[in-house]
Amino acid sequence: MASLEQYHAKRDFKKTAEPAGKVVRSRKGEAGGIFVIQKHAATRLHYDLRLEHNGVLWSWAITRGPSLDPHEKRFAVHVEDHPIDYASFEGTIPKGEYGGGSVIVWDDGRWQPETDPAQAMKKGHISFELHGHKLNGLWHLVRLKPRPGKTRDNWLLIKSDDSAARPGEDILLEAPESVKSGMTIEEVGEGKTADGKKPRVWHSNKRLASKAKAKAARQLEFIEP
C-alpha cells in the first residue's frame, strides 16, 4: 500500500507551506496517470521525475536530467513518495532547509506503464510511455545492484530507440524553460513570476529558522527532492 510516511517525517507542517497531502484513492485496476519532471536547483542541480501510482507520486532524482538520446543512461536515485498535489509546485524552497532551492515544472503530461507497475517496481525494470510537452515515447527505469553497505536505491533512466528518440541532441539545453510559466530556473531564483505576484516559498525543514540560516552555507553531497 502506498504511503507518505517518509515524506511527512522530513517535514514539519506547523512551519511549512508544503502540502501535507494524502494518499489519493485510485480507481481499481487503473495504471499510469500524471507525470511531472521538476527542475530543482538545490545544492546540486538535478531533475525530479515523478510518476503517479496508487495515490502518490513515485519519485526519482535524476542527477543529469533526462535525455532523448538512447545511448545516454542517466543516473536516478529513487527517493520517498510525494503527494499528488506536489506535482504543480513551482517556486522556491529557502536555502538551509530540506531541498532548498528553486523549482520549475520542466515537463508534465501522462505516463502509461507497459506492464503492472507494482510488479515492475519489485523486479527493478519499469517500461513506460510518456506523453508530455518535451518527453514522449518509450522509456525504461532499471534498478542497479546495491553497493555493499549502501542503502541508496539507484536506478538508470534510459530512452528507448523509437520514433521519439533524438540521438546527439540535448533537450535540456534546447528547452530549459517551465511548461507551466515559461520561466527559467534562474528567473524563478531571482524572484520573478509570470503573473507579477510574489513567488511561492515553501519551508520544509524541521529546524528553527535561525539554525537553518546559520547552516545554509554548509554544502551537502546531494539534496533529495
Helices and strands, with pairings:
Elements: H1 5-9, E1 33-41, E2 45-53, E3 56-62, E4 73-82, E5 91-93, E6 101-113, H2 117-123, E7 125-132, E8 136-143, E9 153-159, H3 171-174, H4 185-189, H5 209-214
Antiparallel strand pairs: 1-2, 1-6, 2-3, 3-4, 4-9, 5-6, 6-7, 7-8, 8-9
Report the principal-axis shape. Answer: globular
Order of helices and strands: HEEEEEEHEEEHHH
Q: What fraction, in percent, of the residue positions are helical?
A: 10-25%
Q: In the residues, how many domains can be counted?
A: 1
Distance between the termini: 22 Å
User: pLDDT below 50 for ≥5 consecutive residues: which ranges?
Assistant: 10-20, 204-223
What would you call the structural class? mainly beta
Question: Would you kindly provide a written description of the structure presented here, covering whatever features stand out?
Answer:
- This protein is mainly β.
- The protein has one domain (5-214).
- It contains five helices and nine strands, in the order αββββββαβββααα.
- The longest helix has 7 residues, at 117-123.
- Mean pLDDT is 82; it is low at 10-20 and 204-223.
Defining traits:
225 residues, 9 strands, disordered C terminus
Structure summarized in a few sentences:
The chain contains five helices and nine strands, in the order H-E-E-E-E-E-E-H-E-E-E-H-H-H. It has 225 residues and is mainly β.
